[in-house]
Amino acid sequence: MKKSLPFILIAIVLSICVLAADDEALYYKAINFPSSFEGPVIVPFDSKVLNSMKSDGSDIRITQDSAQIPVKVIITPIEELAHKSAVTQASSTRAQFRGVSYDPSNLINGDYSSNDNAYFQIDAVKDPNYAWIVFSLPQKTLTDSIKVWSSDTDFTWTDIQVEGSNDNEKWDMVKSKTAYSASSERTITYPPVEYKYLKFSFWHTQSLVLNEIEIYGAYTAHAVFLASKGKSYLLHYANPFSTQPSYDTSALYTSSSTPKATLGPQVYNKAYLQDADSDGSTNDNCPSLPNPDQADSDSDGIGDACDNCPSMPNSNQGDADNDGKGDSCDNCISYPNPDQYDDDFNNKGYACDDMDGDGVINSYDNCVSASNSNQADKDRNGVGDACEDADKDGISFSKDNCLSKPNPDQADSDQDHIGDSCDNCRLGANSNQFDRDSDGTGDACEDADSDSIEDYRDNCLSTSNQPQSDQDADGVGDSCDNCVSVRNPEQTDMDRNSKGDICDDNDNDGIINPNDNCPSLSNPKQEDQNNNGAGDACEDFDNDGVLNAEDNCLYESNPKQYIGNEYLQGDRDRDGKGDSCDGKDSRWTENKPVIWGLLIATILIVGFLAIRLLKKPM
Hints:
By secondary structure, the protein is mainly β.
């Protein structure tokens, strides 16, 4: 009995340790939600919790201010979704041949063989190098992998890209272009994402044949607990020795209005002493994976075996885009790119880079090889117009001067940027391609005035002028030139009298405007006292704001002012000479012949009467 006592004590101690360990956890995360809320709360599990917890959720614990509280764990198992979905679009489909259909619906018909009517094939002419397929899931669903069957090794794919969308218009990159070795059955994994539509793009040689596709919904789970105001909560998980606790969960109901919490960063529980990975270490810096050497290259407390960034310290294991690569060494932090592909070695991941410098990152760019900031995509096939070659002449959309017809030589005889193959007037520049009568011949090549000279080389479109005479060499034919003798290509005619302004005589003084030193006022003698090129009539010698032609005092300033209700120059005696230069303004008789006439007449009459009185006998 005494010999067995030590063994009994050891067993009891071990049992106590195991029972104590049942409440321990490898990791924990803070649960975030409004502290003022009280009632049931849903805690969706993120990828770190899903990848570390036990499959039945028996290790999940929630503490309220360090004390355990009841929790209900709800797990949604993985399921295959493709065969519950629909293939809504494909970049192309091979036409039926002898009654055999190659429709994309064959991808989910349940026939994995290479029998007729059992596989999908593209039109190799339309999609010589690249093809895509869109699946519409029954609803917005979390997925993380697909499986592709390709039994025909001659017509198989080399690279794949996965995109997701919830409106079938704006697409997010899920997995950037990734190469896979040839195989009849290939599984493609990617970080869990939640979308309604999934788009799979395949790069191929010769043609592309696919037998079947399966899409797998990601393993999901969440917990429900009852919250109290002002308390703090932690989610504990990843203890492989935990057993299912017995809780009263009758109060843990949920409804459409039940709030959803978020989880903080993952924290390693340093108090955990079990050797979960059986590597001989209880105070393990990587408890989920065996690492007996406890190597920690960056000395951040996380063993290299489970460190998402072993080359740079990141003890919080931050991974904003959940691509398995820690933020500290992720070359594209904001967008999932587990492959860390960096084709130009600029330390920026392909998924976040902008190869063509158009301001749209590769993950969203529908044409990564040619700048197209507007992302134009006329046929809505997911490939930007700048990268397409609609007429199959080997010239991409962005560089092709004739989009509708093949023209590999890019000939453009009239240099109007419209290729000869589709130019409705090859010899006459007409980039607008106007064709008012819709006869297939551009207006530039028509003959509007029927003088047998095409409009693009006719110097007078409105009037027949077969000789094409142009005396003043201004490019406007004499037949329709409003000033035949003087060059005026602009043909301006302000008064619309059919005579060009440059040949017109606005002031009707017999001198045409270009030769008239005062075209606005009649001055047929063209007086110019100071020889400055401006006619005297149009000058203002005394700078009083009144032109000489109208000034009543040429050399002395006498500006206009309000006199009565009129704006006039001063002339008090109304003799036509302005007050400023009139020295006789006080003489009321100056320049007034009527008054002088009356005075003289009065004098004569008085004299006559006086003489008669003198001759009358006394």
